[in-house]
Amino acid sequence: MEPFEEARERALRGAKAGIKSSYGSEEFALIQAINAYRELTKSYNLAYERLSEWYGIYFPELRISNPKTLATLALVLNSKPISRDAVAAAVGEEGKADDIYAKANATMGREMGDEERGAVKKLAESNLAMDSALEALKGYVTAASKRLLPNTSYLTDETIAAELLSKAGSLEKLATMPASTIQLLGAEKALFKHIKFGSKPPKYGVLFKLPAVGTAPRHMRGRIARAYATKISIGLKGDVFSKRFIGEELKSSLDASLERIRSSPEPEPRQHTHEYQRRPMGGRRGFGGGRRPRGSERHGPPRRPGA
Amino acid sequence: MEPFEEARERALRGAKAGIKSSYGSEEFALIQAINAYRELTKSYNLAYERLSEWYGIYFPELRISNPKTLATLALVLNSKPISRDAVAAAVGEEGKADDIYAKANATMGREMGDEERGAVKKLAESNLAMDSALEALKGYVTAASKRLLPNTSYLTDETIAAELLSKAGSLEKLATMPASTIQLLGAEKALFKHIKFGSKPPKYGVLFKLPAVGTAPRHMRGRIARAYATKISIGLKGDVFSKRFIGEELKSSLDASLERIRSSPEPEPRQHTHEYQRRPMGGRRGFGGGRRPRGSERHGPPRRPGA
């Protein structure tokens, strides 16, 4: 082989190895998994509603709010004669199964044609496949979050930790973000609306999914999200750089902060809330708003020409 | 049994039979099927993109644009060692299969962990289940449309006929609609925007899916949709009321109209197009616009106070 070709081969091998190692990091798999999980959850809920509505014309007496049970029942009740045991296995409750079994044999619903039967069966099967995919995705997300983000997972939970990672794009980006950015991850749309049009600034993004934030009284939510974001940002340094588990200490210090926030008195309602919705932030951040000096443009509904 | 109870039983039986017969009509099953088909198609496309992106980190060299092939390959390539025959069966083309097989054994992508393998497998299986459900739904929609809407299916196609039925809500409602309403079925949002805010009126809704409309030059589309709507409205009377197949005659008369439209010269661009976007329809249809007299309110972007 010519020396030039040899060098070229070596360079190619090196480049390939470099690409392989950059693909190698598990964070990218976790990001893909949480994105798939988020989207498939939505699709599954829609598919459940569709099946529930459709099945309602064959068996209007059926009331099932669990997507998996409904899909299983749609398969079980699809066969003639209906098996009493299969219904019981699908529902899990003897009394309820008897009830459904009796109603299914005397339903007011439409008689199913063969083609319809086939289509409903396939739809129910596809719902069950989605359910089982969601379970597998959730399992992987949980395990990978615990491995890659032990502190963050401990402070929040595995799904929220993975969501934060997915919004940030990579572990390193996430770990170098200031707490204020972490607090607003997932609220990008509301933030840009605030910057461009002067609507209220968002107080939380992904962190709203934390029970401690979502169920808190409205006036505390922002401060609770902020307390979480601060501790998460410290925890992330342990997750990504020093690889130390400091979750316990962070958790107890977080609990103390939450206690302080919860015992503080409710603030007076702010007088300038309305003002806030009108005034854009002007050129401060340079998102389009920078073109015009502060207050030079009116926002809100168009004016009546005669007014 | 007391006479009163007997009468009550009789009344109940009668009511049940009435409900059963109203559920009995196949049109409701068709509406459910086309709705499920429409929604599941969207979910499937999203799920395909997810799988494609995710699988890309394990096998970045793979380029597959068919969702079903990708899901099958993701399953086939998941097993170690990879079966050359299974790849060929999934791809269908010998040359391409060899190429994929060779690349798969020397990929630059990430090495898959066991948990990841399980999650990807379930996701691919759920994609395949969606694919097979879509096929079954499409089959049922085609058969039912041909039965319930033979003329409309003949003039357009089975899916479009079912979409029209789903937008109208029932066969009777659809069959008593004027052609102008049929033309705009599925464009409700644009129509209300036109009525309330004076944007351009829509020219087609569901009918845009007709190749004759969608691929026509822009200035003809409205007239072609209108020609279709007129014939569909006549065909529907045959579908629903007289139960006669008049598709052939309608089709040839439709073709003549289309020929006339296509051979007519391109109109001059209208001078008042811009005006159109500004002037709301006022009180003519009573959708909010009725509150103010025509032209009393300005639409468009807010005025600068100094202007």
Share of β-strand residues of chain A: under 5%
Query: End-to-end span of chain A in angstroms?
Result: 86 Å
Order of helices and strands of chain A: HHHHHHHHHHHHHHH
Q: Could you say what the CATH topology of the largest domain in chain A is called?
A: Helix Hairpins
CATH class of the largest domain in chain A: Mainly Alpha
**Architecture of the largest domain in chain A, CATH level 2?**
Orthogonal Bundle
Radius of gyration of chain A: 27 Å
Enumerate the spans of chain A where pLDDT stays under 50 for 5 or more consecutive residues: 282-298
Q: Globular, elongated, flat, extended or rod-shaped: what is the shape of chain A?
A: extended
Assembly form of the protein: homodimer
Give the biggest sheet of chain A: none
Mean pLDDT of chain A: 86
The tally of beta strands of chain A, per DSSP, is 0
Most extensive interface: A-B, 62 and 62 residues
What class would the helix/strand composition of chain A place it in? mainly alpha
**Total domain count of chain A:** 2
Helical stretch count of chain A? 15
* Helical coverage of chain A, percent range: 55-70%
Can you give keywords for this protein?
homodimer, 67% helix, Helix Hairpins, Serum Albumin, Chain A, Domain 1, mainly alpha, extended
Q: Helix and strand layout, with pairings?
A:
Two copies of one chain form a homodimer.
Chain A: H1 3-24, H2 26-55, H3 67-76, H4 84-91, H5 94-104, H6 114-148, H7 150-155, H8 158-168, H9 171-175, H10 179-184, H11 188-197, H12 211-214, H13 218-242, H14 247-263, H15 273-278
Helix pairs in contact in A: 2-3, 2-6, 2-8, 3-4, 3-6, 4-5, 6-8, 13-14
